[in-house]
Amino acid sequence: MDSISGNSRRLVQSALVSLNGVIGEPLHWAGPYFGPGSAGHSLKVLQRSEAMLMGRRTYELFSRQWPAASGPYAEHINAMPKYVFSSTLQEAEWTNTSVIAGDPAKAVAELKHAPGRDLIVYGHGQFGQTLCDAGLVDELTLTVVPVFVDGATYHRPGALARSWELVSAGPGHDPGLVSLTYRPARIEDPASGS
User: Fold this and answer.
1) pLDDT value of position 157
2) Is the sign of the CA dihedral 2, 140, 56, 114 positive or negative?
3) What mean pLDDT, rounded, does the chain reach?
4) Given this model, what pLDDT does residue 188 score?
5) Would you say residue 192 lies in a domain?
6) Numbers of helices and strands, H then E, in the chain
7) % of the chain residues with pLDDT over 90
């Protein structure tokens, strides 16, 4: 399935990744590098987004963390519409969260067809990989954290090979971080000459 074009809203995926490609458990290794600059940038990205999409693991983590938090970021994330994609979760207790069962790629494609602002996905677990494999991610932002750690890596066995085009690269929003933004590469067809 190719990414939907035209007037559809964008799906933006944002992930923290270590120098050796690990994305698992970022709360344990990225925290010391995540300062006021990153917090301010994260709030701006969230404010550009109309809804947040997540798999069950992210939902379980975020629904414990954010309802009890305070400040502009917490207020925004708690108030915005959220969709958790799970075949096992029956209901969501986090405010403004809907549970969607069934084929996540099909459901996300339908959400992208609706008018509105960006849809945001944090992290790159099984749900995030499913969206990439389905060609639904319009922008991929990686924040590289200067550590080597053990854990689950960004690319996992069975993931589809896809090419990405670098849109921007530069220092992150706090010292030591690097920010990389990609979009799906437009692969030219040699037979068509385009």
Assistant:
1) 75
2) negative
3) 91
4) 60
5) no
6) 5, 8
7) 80
Question: In the β-sheet with 82-85, what is the strand arrangement from edge to edge?
Answer: 97-100, 82-85, 49-55, 118-122, 11-18, 139-145, 178-184, 164-171
Position 107 in a domain: yes
How many CB atoms neighbour CB 178 within 10 A? Answer: 15
DSSP 26-57: GGGTTGGG--HHHHHHHHHHHHTEEEEEEEHH
Does the residue 90 lie in any domain? yes
Give me the pLDDT at residue 4, please. Answer: 39
Query: Per the structure block, which two tokens stand in for 111?
Result: 């959400």
User: Can you give the pTM of this predicted structure?
Assistant: 0.89
Note the residue count of the chain: 194
Residue 44 has pLDDT above 80, yes or no: yes
| Angstrom distance (rounded) from CA 99 to CA 132 | 21
Q: Domain containing 165 — which CATH number?
A: 3.40.430.10
Buried b / exposed e along 88-126 (16+ C-beta atoms within 10 A):
ebeebebeebebbeeebbeebbebbeeeeebbbbbbbbe
